[in-house]
Amino acid sequence: MNILEIIDKKRLGQSHSQEELAFLVDGAMTGSIPDYQLSAWLMAVCCRGLNLDETTWLTDLYVKSGQVLDFSDIGGVVVDKHSTGGVGDKTTLILAPLLAACGLKVAKLSGRGLGFTGGTIDKLEAIPGFQTQLTAEQFRQQVKDIGIALGSQSQDLAPADGKIYALRDVTATVASIPLIAASVVSKKIAAGAQVIVLDIKVGSGAFMKSLEEARQLAETCREVGKRLGRSISTVISHMDQPLGNAIGHTIEVMEAIDTLKGKGPPDLTELCLTLGAMATKNDLAKLMASGEALNRFRQLIQAQHGNPDILDNYSLMPQPTQKIPVLAKSSGFVHQCNALKLAMAAKVLGAGRVAKGDVIDLAVGVKLFKKLGDPVQAGEALGELWANAKGQEEARQLFQEAYVIDPEKISPSKLIEEICAATQLP
Fold first, then answer.
1. What is the value of pTM for the model shown?
2. Could you tell me the end-to-end alpha-carbon distance of the chain, in angstroms, rounded to an integer?
3. Mind listing the domains of the chain with CATH numbers?
4. Residue 194 has what pLDDT?
5. Residue of 60, 80, 161, 361 with catalytic role
6. Does the annotation mark 209 as catalytic?
7. Any catalytic annotation for residue 183?
8. Which is the catalytic residue, given 16, 90, 187, 296?
9. To the nearest whole percent, how much of the chain has pLDDT over 70?
C-alpha cells in the first residue's frame, strides 16, 4: 500500500477502504509516514470530506491505537460529557456531580485550556490540593467507590488521535467535521463511556460558527456512536455571549458552586439541567435544592485530595489583588456581549495560554453584571476585571469593545437551539 496513492485518492474525492485508513493510522503511530504526507492527507480530507463509513472506521482505529478503560465490572451506566469549547463554560463542574447524584457513574477525562477557551483541569486546580493526575486504576476505583472521577486526559487513550490532532492544530485542518467527530467520539469511547452527552456550541465564541455546521457535527457524532455501540445525546447551545457571568478559573469554580447551591445564573443553570438528558429537569433541580449534588462535589474534592472547605469559603482559592469595575459609556440595552472579546480580556489578564506550557494565573478573570437584553445606565458597571499586575488597560479596552449598547429594547435569543437523540435512562 502506498501513502501517495491514498493522498491522491482523497484529493480526487474518492472513498478510502478500512485497510487504507488502518495503514495511514499505523504509519502515524510508527512514524513511517512523515508529517508532511499526513498533513497533505488532512488537507485533502478538509477539502473532500469523509463519508460515515470512513469516519466510523477512523474513529474505531483511534480507539484501538491505545488503552481502552473498562468499567463493565463496576455496575451502573457510565456517562461522559463533552463540550466543543466555549467562553465561561464550567458545566462539567456542575453536571458531573448532578449526574452522580442521580446514581449514574460519571467518568470524565478533561483537558487544559488553549487559546480563548478555558480548560476544566485548569479550573479544578484552583481548588487547593486537588489532584487531576490519576492512574487508570485510581480513576476506575474512584468511579466504582463514589460514582464520579474527573481527571486529566491520558496520552495512553486514543494516542493516534493525539498525534494527528497535533498536526491539525498547526496546518489549518482543524475545521473538518468528520475529523472533529472522530477525535471527540474516539476519546470518549477509549475512556470507557457507555453514554456520551455532547454539548455543541455555536456562535461567535464557539468553533462552530453556523447552526448548519453544528447540526451536521451533532448528526455525525450520533451516527458514529451508534455504529460503535455508544449512545450519544447532543445539545446545540449558543455561544454568542459567555455562559454564566464568570470567565476565569477561581471565579468559574465559585460560580459552579453557587449553581450547585441553586443560586447560579439562569442561563448556566438551564443548560446544565438540559444536558442532564438522562433524568428529568425536575429531578435534577431537586438534587440541587436538597444539597445532594453539592455533596457529590464535596466527595469528589475529598477523593482527589482537594480542600472541601472551599465550598463555604471561596477565599481559600487564589484571589486577585484588584477588582476593577468597567463602566458603561451610554444608557440603553445590551445588544452585544461578545464572548470572544471577553475571553481575550481574561486571557490578557493572565487567565489563558498562548502555548500549552504557559503558566496561567488562576486568580484573574472577568465577571459580568450585564448580558444580552439587560438595561444599563451610563456610568453603571457592566462588570469587573479580576486582576493582578498584568494587562489591565488592554483588558479594559477589550471589555468595552465587547459591549454594544443601544436605546432600543431587545429580547435575547434562546440559549438552547435544539436537543437531539436525548437518552432517557431509568
1. 0.88
2. 49
3. 3-49 (1.20.970.10), 78-312+416-420 (3.40.1030.10), 319-406 (3.90.1170.30)
4. 87
5. 161
6. no
7. yes
8. 187
9. 95
